[in-house]
Design brief:
Residues 1-40 are annotated as: Disordered. The chain is α/β, with parallel strands linked by helices. The chain has 32 helices and 30 strands. The protein starts with 16 loop residues before the first strand and ends with a strand.
């Protein structure tokens, strides 16, 4: 717009009205002018022109643009009608800002950019200040859910074009602070390269884990590397720059190995770095201190961090935890002393703790609510507890799953040092020995590696009980699943949590007795959720739950502990008789989660359950029928999980019932059709042939489905499952008739399918079945259904899906080359089970050991080529290995060597070695030449916990 010259005396007197004709282009005829107060009602704007009557004085006072135009020496300054050519919406927003009452005008992400553009063009200083204040306030709230990412991207582009420095400074900081939330947005991959670079370089970059950052960058790079007509000349260097910002030494091993699939160089470098750290992290850290590069080994923790997730990082030691919360200006010599102390924590006391506690006052991260150190076997948990106390005074959740080194004494110390924690999870793998198995012999020994423990809290012992009683603990959820190193005495110590404990999980804690569990319940009366499956929980504990604890109480069942039970898992608790179970069922009426699998539950017991809030019900492997189950389903309209597999009596007639009809008692589909919320279902015996039309309404929200022996789904039903269950994520079929058409349709159409398990299914499957791409599939189990699989089929399968678990049985055409196909095709496998798979191990297991993220291996009847040192080799080469199952038929020498030095820095939980009837002598010896076809005789099982190694011989294969 041009401003022709004019005489100063022609300027209008301030305060006169002036009519502004705001237009993007010349327009005629001119529209009639409106008042400023009417602008808010103009929606949409009458583009391309709006004529507004405004106060001349206010315009001149507020805008340098209008001051020059209306109060200067220009010819327009004296006119009553002035034309302004600019962005129409921007100008209208500015006029609203200037003339509307301040309380009725607010800046939002919807009008911010038009306001900013108008403020820049019309030079409204006060609006520029308000825009900057609003943008900074918005960014400081660190609540990504309130601000669309598209708005941030648009603001960045605008700021670059117009040189708005405060926006350019704030956008990367805002994204960095909210990065963990931003990466889940659909428009994340639209973030421009320079903005993403500024974000990942920002010191406030906040992620839950290094994996989260790396995954986001790889996704962005993959999306933005797609071919285009004008390739970005800096794209290659740019992508390498982004990836260089990832601290690969802090990546989980499984994730690092998985990146080799599409980013081989980056993934291979990451895996090598992690493995080198495992060999000698002390030397690496000391070298980093000397070079001044310690930042590359520090966990990302900022003032905005809420979660710290290090799960699956075996390379992490206690030293990594401490260097991550030290002040950056800390003396180099002190850093060396700290690393030296905590890298060798098992060999010296923590002489630096008091010094650190005084020097590290600034290293308190009050926003952190959850820390996850699961699968970190090299962390010393006594020292880690002191770290938690130093750095995270508001911590609520601590997880240390699959960490044998996190023992009961560590738990007690954690309760003493960090009483503000609300939830602790120290789950380990459950024992492979179950009560119904026939045990030939069993022995145990204290682990040789148990040294004099240098932890500071050992100087405080005894008296645990007196100290714990003096602490006001907040623990409400305690998960001890699989801990067969915890006994009744330990459980009694836990009862110090009587004022806070509401949820306890002691599943598969095999040393606990019914009396011990009962005593805990007597003391911790606030417990309303229990997972006690496969324990000795029995009649005594039920009597404790059902007994009046306040004599002379007249408020019905309100004083009975069982009346408040919200979650109860009793699966496999065979110490409960039918009468006691019936008594319990008559009281637990507000329960939402109920598991009675493999119990003595009968129709009589289930009929006494009158609750109507169930969301989860598991009655698998019981003798209940639809006589009792149908009313339960009808009453519980919010039921989303129903498991009835193995209920042989589901539709049987009973003596007291003359006839069971669909109209009177209902059938399975008829009843669940009334709920409409089922997401998880297990079906077994007692179901009639199922029609597609009966499934559509009942199963439309199903995510997980298991169909077992006793139910047969027709081919047309199986083919229609992706349509019937559009959200299907997991499908397990046992003893079903399947075909190429069924499997291909599942892989092609069930786009959310992550788990596919086919067990003992019949049909004419061919290699054509698995040629369909299934990018979401992560777990594949094919047991005795695909004997035709060859190496070529395996190669095709590796290109079709990215698996983390693979289980194959009866694939006799596989050979030693199969190992390389598996390890190179799925480098991030966590589970590999091969049984009766030809000659896969006839030349050893070297390629299998290249899958560095393996946690669970089963090799049985896969070729006589496994060397004596397999156990030690596997433990040494696979840092995350927890379970190993072998068959002595596959040994190429005279059996296998016993494992040595397993526990130190390792995760090994169980070793199983099966042997056959034709074998003679030691359980670790091979059969002689000419022996008959092997038939499994027994299994030797070695199990480790935090204190002991138990050796058991079981009279069957396990």
């Amino acid at each position: 717009m041009s401003f022709p010259g004019g005489d100063g005396e022609d300027a209008a007197v301030a305060g006169d009205p002036v009519v502004l004709e705001i237009t993007d282009t010349s327009s005629s005829p001119r529209p009639p002018p409106v008042s400023v107060s009417d602008l808010s009602r103009l929606h949409p704007l009458p583009s391309p022109t709006v004529t507004v009557r405004a106060d001349r004085r206010r315009l001149i006072e507020s805008s340098s643009y209008f001051r020059a135009l209306l109060g200067g020496s220009f010819s327009e300054s004296g006119r009553e009608h002035v034309q302004v050519g600019c962005n129409l919406e921007a100008a209208v927003q500015v006029l609203r800002y200037l003339f509307q009452p301040s309380e009725s005008f607010t800046i939002t992400h919807h009008n911010f950019l038009p306001l900013l553009e108008g403020a820049l063009f019309l030079v409204v200083e006060s609006l520029l200040v308000d825009c900057e204040r609003w943008f900074r306030t918005m960014a400081s709230q660190t609540c990504a859910a309130l601000v669309p990412l598209d708005f941030i991207i648009e603001a960045w582009y605008f700021a670059q074009e117009h040189g708005v420095t405060f926006v350019q400074d704030i956008c990367p900081e805002y994204l960095a602070q909210n990065f963990a939330h931003v990466i889940s947005r659909r428009s994340f991959n639209k973030i421009p390269y320079d903005l993403l670079c500024s974000t990942v370089e920002c010191p406030h970059l906040t992620v839950d884990s290094e994996k989260q950052l790396c995954e986001a960058i790889l996704d962005w790079v993959s999306e933005n590397m797609k071919p285009c007509e004008q390739p970005n000349p800096n794209s290659v260097d740019g992508h390498l720059f982004l990836l260089s910002k990832v601290k690969i030494c802090l990546l989980p091993l499984e994730f690092a190995t998985g990146t080799k699939r599409h980013w081989f160089d980056f993934g291979n470098n990451s895996v090598c770095t992690i493995l080198n750290l495992l060999k000698d992290s002390f030397k690496t850290l000391m070298g980093a201190i000397a070079d001044g590069n310690l930042e590359g080994y520090c966990i990302r923790i900022t003032e905005y961090s809420k979660n710290i997730v290090l799960s699956g990082c075996p390379q992490i030691t206690t030293a990594f935890l401490y260097i991550s919360v030290l002040p950056t200006d800390l003396d180099v010599s002190l850093k060396r002393r700290i690393v030296s102390s905590y890298i060798q924590v098992d060999h010296r006391s923590f002489i630096l703790y008091d010094e650190l506690e005084k020097a590290a006052k600034t290293l308190s991260f009050r926003n952190v609510r959850m820390v996850d150190l699961s699968k970190c076997p090299n962390v010393h948990f006594g020292a880690a507890t002191d770290w938690l106390k130093l750095a995270f005074p508001e911590l609520r959740i601590f997880r240390a799953l699959h960490c044998l080194a996190f023992c009961f004494d560590d738990l007690l110390y954690l309760l003493l040092r960090c009483p503000w924690i609300d939830e602790i999870d120290m789950t380990i793998d459950t024992s492979t020995i179950i009560p119904k198995q026939s045990i030939v012999s069993s022995s145990s020994e204290v682990l040789g590696k148990m040294k004099q423990n240098p932890r500071r809290y050992y100087t405080l012992c005894p008296p645990y009980d007196r100290q714990l009683n003096s602490v006001s603990s907040n623990i409400s959820r305690l998960i001890l699943e699989g801990r067969n190193d915890i006994d009744d005495v330990d459980l009694l110590r836990i009862s110090v949590l009587k004022y806070s404990l509401c949820y306890i999980n002691i599943r598969n804690c095999t040393l606990l007795t019914d009396n011990g569990i009962s005593n805990l319940l007597l003391k911790c009366t606030k417990i309303h959720s229990m997972v006690v499956s496969y324990t000795s929980f029995g009649n005594q504990s039920i009597q404790t739950l059902c007994t009046t604890d306040l004599p002379n109480h007249n408020d019905g069942h309100a004083h009975v502990m069982a009346f408040n039970i919200q979650e109860l898992h009793l699966g496999g608790c065979r110490g409960i008789d039918a009468a006691a179970l019936s008594q319990l069922m008559s009281i637990i009426n507000i329960t939402k989660f109920l598991c009675l699998r493999e119990t003595s539950l009968t129709d009589d017991g289930l009929c006494k359950f009158f609750g109507s809030r169930l969301e989860y019900l598991d009655v698998s492997e019981t003798v209940v029928s639809m006589v009792s189950l149908a009313p339960v389903i009808r009453r519980n309209c919010n039921l989303n999980c129903l498991k009835t597999a193995g209920c042989h009596s589901l539709l049987f007639e009973h003596n007291e019932v003359e006839h069971i009809s669909g109209n009177k008692y209902g059938d399975f589909l008829q009843e669940i059709g009334s709920t409409g919320f089922l997401e998880d279902v297990e079906m077994g015996w007692g179901f009639c042939p199922i029609q597609i039309e009966n499934l559509i309404s009942s199963f439309s929200k199903i995510r997980r489905m298991t169909v077992g022996l006793g139910t047969t789904l027709a081919e047309n039903v199986l083919c229609a499952l992706p349509m019937i269950c559009p959200f299907l994520e997991s499908l397990t079929l046992r003893f079903q008739v399947i075909s190429d058409r069924v499997v291909r349709n599942l892989l092609e159409s069930a786009r959310n399918l992550q788990v596919l398990c086919l067990h003992y299914c019949l049909g004419n499957l061919t290699s054509f079945s698995f040629q369909e791409k299934a990018p979401a599939l992560r777990i594949l189990r094919l047991q005795w259904v695909t004997p035709w699989i060859t190496n070529d089929d395996l190669t095709i399968l590796t290109k079709s899906c990215n698996l983390v678990e693979l289980s194959l049985s009866g694939c006799k055409l596989l050979d030693s080359n199969s190992q390389e196909i598996i390890s190179s095709g799925w480098p991030n496998l966590a589970l590999l089970h091969l049984e009766d798979c030809g000659q896969v191990t006839v030349e050893g297991v070297s390629s299998i050991l290249n899958c560095k993220a393996l946690e669970d291996i089963l090799l049985r009847h896969t070729g006589r080529g496994i060397g004596r040192s397999i156990v030690d080799d596997a433990i040494r080469e696979l840092p995350l290995l927890r379970r190993l199952a072998l068959d002595l038929c596959d040994a190429c020498e005279e059996g296998y060597d016993s494992p040595s030095n397993v526990m130190e820095g390792r995760m090994m939980r169980s070793l199983r070695m099966s042997r056959c009837k034709t074998m003679r002598g030691s359980c670790l010896e091979l059969p002689r030449e000419g022996s008959s076809k092997p038939v499994h005789r027994d299994t030797i099982v070695l199990e480790w916990n935090s204190t002991r190694l138990t050796t058991t011989i079981v009279k069957e294969r396990v």
